[in-house]
Design brief:
By secondary structure, this protein is α/β, with parallel strands linked by helices. The chain has one domain: Carbon-nitrogen hydrolase (Nitrilase/N-carbamoyl-D-aminoacid amidohydrolase). α4 crosses α5. The longest helix has 19 residues.
Length: about 260
């Protein structure tokens, strides 16, 4: 399996973001990609501010127009696509992700369980969490999602491990409080923590962050594939949009 982890630039223009994603997906498909992994809230960025009047219009129903847009991409290019979405269900918001099949069908829908995607003071009637860790069995293997802080909750990591997935899809949004994009800081202080947590899940994890120039937070991008033992198999550095292409062996347990 050739996987493409796309670090996209997120701006205030969602339509422009989607156009850039579409171009990157096409280029990855032309390079032989069978699986695309996009970051957390890839079309909008993690820009919720705790005000429902601001945040609810950002949410997308699933399935809905946004998943149909991604469905057109996967049908056009014949691949699987995983993407993080700010999901709206009625007057509730979730930090969610979906995996689309080459036919454009949603084969995995996950809602982040760990709550730190919003402020503790946010209205719990609006800002909600999921409860389940579902699994999808595909010809490429068995997939689960974890989103950002989920990985650092040992209980959630243990639930994922119990499902014995082949791959963890890990869209995330990470920045440093000072807005820096230090590769050295990432390698020395952050990466070891991610490796420790991936070991607790125990399977290959495909991790991708987006880039943003928005103040006060500057999400610094970067993508990597990490083995279940915590070894970085492949990566691209922080600081700019780009695509990590990596070839991975499909397990024989994949659904025919």
């Amino acid at each position: 399996m050739r996987a493409a982890l796309i670090v996209n630039q997120v701006t205030a223009d969602r339509e422009a973001n989607l156009a850039h994603i579409g171009t990157a997906v096409s280029a990855a498909a032309a390079s032989g990609a069978e699986l695309i992994v996009l970051p957390e809230m890839a079309a909008t960025g993690l820009i919720n501010n705790g005000d429902p009047d601001h945040d609810l219009p950002l949410g997308q129903i699933i399935p809905g127009p946004l998943t149909r847009t991604f469905g057109k991409m996967v049908r056009r290019d014949g691949l699987y696509l995983a993407v993080g979405i700010m999901e709206r269900e009625g007057n509730a918001l979730y930090d969610s992700a979906v995996l689309l099949s080459p036919e454009g069908r949603i084969v995995l829908h996950y809602r982040r369980i760990q709550p730190q995607w919003h402020a503790p003071s946010a209205d719990p009637a609006v800002y909600r969490q999921g409860e389940m860790v579902p699994l999808a069995n595909t010809p490429l293997g068995r997939f689960v999602f974890l989103i950002c802080g989920d990985l650092f909750d040992d209980g959630i990591a243990a639930r994922a491990r119990e499902l014995q997935p082949d791959w963890v899809l890990f869209p995330f949004a990470r920045c440093f409080a000072d807005g820096s994009r230090s590769q050295r800081r990432w390698a020395q202080s952050e990466l070891p923590q991610y490796a420790t947590q991936v070991q607790k899940v125990g399977c290959t994890t495909l991790m991708v962050n987006y880039c943003s120039e928005r103040d006060p937070d500057s999400y610094f991008g970067g993508a990597m594939v990490m083995s279940g033992s915590g070894q970085v198999l492949s990566h691209i550095p922080l600081g700019k949009p780009g695509t990590l292409l990596v070839d991975l062996a499909v397990p024989s347990s994949g659904e025919p």
